[in-house]
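Researcher: Next entry in the queue.
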Amino acid sequence: MMRQAGRHLPEYRETRARARDFLDFCYSPSLAAEATLQPVRRYGMDGAILFADILLILDAMGRNVRFLEGEGPRVDPATKASDLARVPLEKMLSKLAPVGETVERVKAALDPSVTLIGFAGSPWTVGVYAIEGRGGTDKADSRKFGYQHPEELDGMLEQLVEASAHYLKMQADAGADALMLFESWAEGLPQDAFERWVIGPTAKLVQRVRALGVKQPIIGFPRGAGALVVDYAELTGVNAVGLDTAMPLKRIDAMLPKGMPVQGNLDPMRLVAGGPGLETRVREIIDQLKDRPHIFNLGHGVTPEVPISNVESVLHTIRGLA
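Model: Structure for this entry, 322 residues:
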């Protein structure tokens, strides 16, 4: 489950308290590895999702990432492509090396039957943070910037493609069995912008990762893409696609490439609410996606208020259907 290592677990909160701040947590391999492993130990998950953050790459690129209590991430805004090219690639990768060590530690501790998933933010989503300096916006500044300075935004996304490709290769070399691209800010884009800012850079990123020799499967998650998820699945080169909470499963199932694996799409609020409706919805999702490979997951992340008993209930239902 996305964000399975998180604040709904008491053992996570204890581990988090041992770090100076969130960035220190992410850059401390012993702590990050422990956070990655905790949900696997507690729930017997089939997959471990690397504990890190999509903004680490901007921090390594010199954009002064910090996390403010109660306000979320802040980034020194970039106004041109050269702002993302100030740190040489080798220095950037050296800054990110603790993430590779975390992957190595987790891989060594996992049973071979458990998949280890590494990840990065997709270029457009990371670019939104770089331009706006924060999350939680309507992306108006980023969209306006792209319309007014299209070549400059293209240049920013190119910088992020190259940096992200090497970051993902590092994770793959360290032992990640699969890689995931989080396009968290895909929603609300018109088709032409989606094609230029989401599909194009993602396809380039996948191609660059493959050119670097990475063979691991790549899952793409364009949250909020709506019907454009079909173009995303067909044109980016990803091996599987994540479906967010709002996706109409039967309709999308009929439109996606035959045989393409999907991931998703239980509403995280269902997981909070629990009750008989939770089991019913889990069964509905599995039934509606029964004719293609399906990785059961949420349509977004586990939230802090999720009761552990509700996660256990979902897992019990899924395993009972296996």
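Model: The beta strands are 47-49, 66-68, 72-74, 115-121, 178-183, 218-222, 240-242, 262-266, 294-298.
Researcher: Noted, moving on.
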